[in-house]
Every structure is written in structure tokens, then in C-alpha cells.
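FORM 12-B: Structure-to-Sequence Request
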């Protein structure tokens, strides 16, 4: 990844009467920072103890993963997608219940937000940073049942295994969602369901415009990456649930 330093040149006009400065022109150029740039020993020595401290924290073994979690394997759902959606509800729901006396029904995240695998074996905080390098936070949106149906049909139209939990449905032969259930019960169009997602998606990211139709919105100030790390710390072995969430009509 390339980083750039922006150099700005300020040309100022000076008023002799009151010594005020005014910016009249800004010039800049990009200087690429690559592996070709030589390191400075003084800087390296200064940051060394901080780097070692961070590396130690990120490298500490927190739990064990019984299988490789990979978003590339699965047509409508993947093991890593199901895992992330499950633990997001598991960790966010107690906070939501305590603060709002309401429960989360569904989790929907985006397939593209998963940046790499969780390998089989020991897992660390570094794995969480690699899977979710962004600063996305968990947001809970209250949606009517008609918008939940929109979620199902959105997933069908996208043809991507977006992480999903708390909701199941069948894809009919004419590519329409049917038998939609939330927490094991048939969907009710006028009922409000609480969906936990990322702040990016809650604002309509990835064309998930149904979230913008929400009737309630709650920010629980909990980063999705920290949900992963906290889950790792709480368990000995990761629980990977492979139950069927999206099925296709024969």
C-alpha cells in the first residue's frame, strides 16, 4: 500500500498596519512513501519499543479456530459470514437489552467488508484487524417487516453471501424470497425488527437503501473489530455454526 505526504507551500500577503496574514495560494505535490525510502536510525530507535509493545498485544493467542473461515466458499452463505453475524448478535445484544430493553433480531453485514480468512489454529487480535481493518461500528436499526423482505430480495439480487444471522428464507424458482422467518417465526409486515449492522451499511452503503427507511436507530459505540476480539477472549474454541440460513427451491 502506498502512502503519500502532501507538502504545502503558503504564499502570504502581509498588511503592514496590523500584521495580518492571508493565504493567497496553496501549492502541493505528492511524494510516494515506498520500500525504496531509506529508514532513519533515530526514528526507528524511537518507535521500536512502541512497535514491540503493539506486536506483543496483537500476537497474543486468544482462542483456537477449528477450521479455516473463508468468504470465498459458499454460494449464499459462508462459514466466516455466519460466524461474524452470529457473534455480532451475541456480543451486541446484551448491551442493547441493558440500554433499550429491546432485543436484536437480525444481523446483516456485507460480504466485501470481510478482507481475509481466519486460519485454522490459534487466533489473535491481529487476525481480527486483518479481517476487519476498518473502523466500522455496530449500529442497530429498527425496520418494519416490509423492509426485512427487502433485505431478502436484496441478497438474492446481489448474488453474494452477505453475513446473515437471525433470519432464514427460501429462494423460489423465480428468484423471489419466500418463507421468510425471523428468529424462527414467520415475518410480520407491520412489526418492528431490530437489525444490527455496520455504520457504513446503516447509511445506505453497498446500496442497502432499506436501512435508510429505518424507524429507529441506536449507536451502541462498539466497533465490529472489537466484537471479534472480545469474542476471542471469551471462548477457548470458536463456535462455527453451519446451519442453513438461505435455501434454494428445487
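FORM 12-B RESPONSE
SEQUENCE OUT:
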Amino acid at each position: 500500500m502506498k502512502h503519500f505526504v502532501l507538502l504545502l507551500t503558503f504564499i502570504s500577503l502581509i498588511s503592514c498596519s496590523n500584521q495580518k496574514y492571508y493565504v493567497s495560494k496553496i501549492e502541493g505535490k505528492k511524494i510516494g512513501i515506498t520500500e525504496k525510502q531509506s529508514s532513519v536510525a533515530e526514528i526507528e530507535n524511537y518507535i521500536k519499543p512502541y512497535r514491540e509493545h503493539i506486536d506483543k498485544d496483537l500476537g497474543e493467542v486468544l482462542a483456537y479456530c477449528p477450521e479455516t473461515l473463508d468468504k470465498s466458499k459458499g454460494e449464499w452463505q459462508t462459514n466466516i459470514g455466519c460466524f461474524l453475524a452470529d457473534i455480532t448478535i451475541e456480543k451486541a445484544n446484551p448491551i442493547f437489552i441493558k440500554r433499550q430493553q429491546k432485543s436484536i433480531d437480525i444481523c446483516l453485514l456485507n460480504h466485501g467488508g470481510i478482507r481475509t480468512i481466519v486460519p485454522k489454529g490459534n487466533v489473535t487480535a491481529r487476525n481480527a484487524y486483518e479481517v476487519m481493518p476498518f473502523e466500522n461500528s455496530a449500529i442497530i436499526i429498527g425496520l418494519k417487516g416490509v423492509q426485512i423482505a427487502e433485505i431478502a430480495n436484496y441478497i438474492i439480487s446481489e448474488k453474494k453471501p452477505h453475513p446473515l444471522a437471525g433470519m432464514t428464507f427460501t429462494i423460489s424458482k423465480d428468484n423471489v424470497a419466500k418463507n421468510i422467518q425471523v428468529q424462527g417465526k414467520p415475518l410480520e409486515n407491520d412489526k418492528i425488527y431490530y437489525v444490527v449492522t455496520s455504520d457504513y451499511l446503516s447509511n445506505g452503503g453497498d446500496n442497502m437503501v432499506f436501512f435508510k427507511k429505518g424507524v429507529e436507530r441506536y449507536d451502541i459505540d462498539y466497533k465490529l473489530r472489537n466484537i471479534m476480539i472480545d469474542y476471542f477472549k471469551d471462548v477457548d474454541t470458536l463456535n462455527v455454526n453451519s446451519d442453513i440460513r438461505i435455501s434454494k427451491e428445487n
